[in-house]
Design goal:
Keywords: Cell outer membrane, Membrane, Signal, Transmembrane, Transmembrane beta strand
Helix content: 10-25%
CATH architecture: Beta Barrel
Strand content: over 45%
Number of strands: 23
Membrane topology: Multi-pass membrane protein
Protein name: Membrane protein involved in aromatic hydrocarbon degradation
Order of helices and strands: HHHEEEEEEEHEHEEEEEEEEEEEEEEE
Strand order of the largest sheet: 1-4-5-6-7-10-11-15-16-19-20-21-22-23
Number of helices: 5
Main location: membrane
Number of domains: 1
Subcellular location: Cell outer membrane
């Protein structure tokens, strides 16, 4: 009877975690660190420069290397976490001296996990967290706005992860994992007339329209701006949403009692197009037509095409010369070039009568394809970290995370300034009891700047981020 009651309790906890975790995945947003990826996952690995492939980094093993669960003693671990990313982003137009500061300076991302290890060495459970994203917010009075309306971006990826790890023997752990990704995007973007004409000519991307809208665009002798606008203003979801699957495999091998190596592969996601739904987006143009200012504003649906999370793979080592000191190093590769060659949007005007602007201007069902070249480079990330058990209750941690800016200057957009390079990390863990402990981490990323030579706009980006995790073992 007792074992059945305990099983029912575990099931109720898992179902509760699933419900809360879905909300977590939907509400998570983040500003870029290693490209769109966070520099570390969990307070333990986050304080050690993100290194976490070859030792037990806590429930965040689901993102680092699920095979590391094989190091655990039998039991169940409940984890609660909060990461707050604090980017400082500005954009400056060098020729005019105009400057805009992003008001998006705090992005909270909660996490929830419940992981059990059986006496036979099998580990399973569920975890939910934000994987990463990008976000900026500029006012309508800044030089980045041509319409007088705010311009902003918010992209988030959240994951529900179901790990299955097995301790083969005292030396080898293996794991497979199924992930479900949820993606959300808001975008309010103005493009000046020169950029619009350039896109129509294939400069920096492409812009093409179905016959009716194409004729309307050709009718402008000069274009002031074009605006793409889809945003629901919600802190929980974005106007455009998508979902799909990915997977992970992992391995750890203890070479000596002191030295362990680990390796993990995270597959590219399969999410398909993200959609706003009917009438969830607006596409607007303004310009000069036969000597007077004319504007077109259409309601419809935007599909964000083939926006996926990239494959990531890497190796790590952990050296533990005693029970007080751990030194860790990871090297991983993020395949951005496979998923961020372009940002492609397809707008389709709805059948609403509001899109019928009069004779010869019935735009219902008309389409526009917009592709902005990104050409992100693959990124190699080196993570180095150390932890020292100062007392029976207190553990101190520090590390560095080293990477290059993945975005070519000529395609840098101030709405997506994912140009951060190096990070410096520190943190601590404190055990209240054998069952209850907390982990804290802070990350500082020095300012990086890059200038788009085509637009003359310089983006500057630095970060100060914090993490807190609470763990209860039962």
């Amino acid at each position: 009877m007792a074992s059945r009651s305990y099983a029912r309790l575990r099931l109720r906890l898992a179902l509760t975690a699933a419900g809360l975790g879905t909300a977590v995945a939907l509400s998570s947003s983040a500003s870029a660190t290693n490209g769109m990826a966070m520099a570390g996952y969990g307070a333990r690995a986050g304080a050690m420069g993100g290194a976490g492939m070859a030792y037990d980094a806590g429930n965040s093993n689901v993102m680092n290397n699920p095979a590391a669960f094989g190091f655990r003693e039998p039991g169940t671990v409940l984890g609660l976490g909060l990461t707050v990313l604090g980017p400082e982003v500005t954009a400056a137009h060098e020729a005019s001296g105009a400057e805009a500061r992003s008001e998006g300076d705090a992005y909270p991302s909660p996490s929830l996990s419940l992981i059990r290890t059986s006496p036979g060495g099998l580990t399973y459970g569920a975890a939910f967290l934000a994987q990463g994203g990008m976000g900026t917010e500029y006012g309508g009075e800044t030089f980045l706005s041509r319409s007088g309306e705010p311009v902003r971006s918010e992209v988030s990826f959240g994951r529900l992860m179901l790990p299955l790890a097995y301790r083969v023997n005292d030396r080898v752990n293996v794991a497979v994992q199924l992930d479900y990704l949820v993606g959300n995007m808001d975008l309010q973007m103005d493009m000046g007339g020169a950029q619009v004409r350039g896109l129509m000519s294939g400069v920096g991307g492409s812009l093409s329209a179905s016959p009716g809208l194409g004729a309307a665009l050709d009718g402008f002798s000069a274009i002031d701006y074009a605006r793409v606008d889809f945003s629901n203003g919600s802190d929980l979801t974005g106007e455009a949403q998508g979902g799909g699957l990915a997977g992970k495999i992992g391995l750890t091998l203890r070479l000596t009692p002191e030295l362990t190596v680990g390796a993990a592969y995270h597959s590219e996601s399969r999410m398909g197009d993200w959609s706003t739904g009917a009438n969830g987006a607006e596409l607007a143009f303004q310009g000069d037509m036969r000597g007077s200012t004319r504007s077109v504003a259409l309601q419809g649906e935007v599909a964000v095409e083939d926006f996926e999370w990239p494959a990531t793979y890497g190796v790590g080592i952990a050296y533990e010369p005693g029970d007080r000191l751990t030194l860790a190093a990871d090297v991983k590769r993020i395949a951005w070039s496979e998923v961020l060659e372009t940002l492609s949007l397809r707008f389709k005007a709805s059948d609403s009568e509001a899109n019928n602007l009069g004779p010869g201007r019935d735009f219902r069902g008309e389409e526009v394809d917009l592709a902005l070249r990104q050409e992100w480079a693959d990124q190699t990330v080196v993570s180095l970290g150390a932890q020292l058990r100062a007392t029976a209750a207190l553990t101190l941690r520090a590390g560095v995370n080293l990477a290059d800016n993945p975005i070519p200057d000529e395609y840098l957009n101030p709405l997506f300034p994912a140009i951060i390079e190096d990070h410096y990390t520190a943190g601590l863990g404190y055990a209240f009891t054998e069952r209850s402990r907390i982990g804290l981490a802070v990350t500082y990323a020095p300012e990086v700047e890059a200038t788009n030579p085509r637009t003359g706009v310089t983006s500057r980006h630095s970060q100060l981020n914090g993490r807190a995790n609470y763990v209860y073992r039962f």
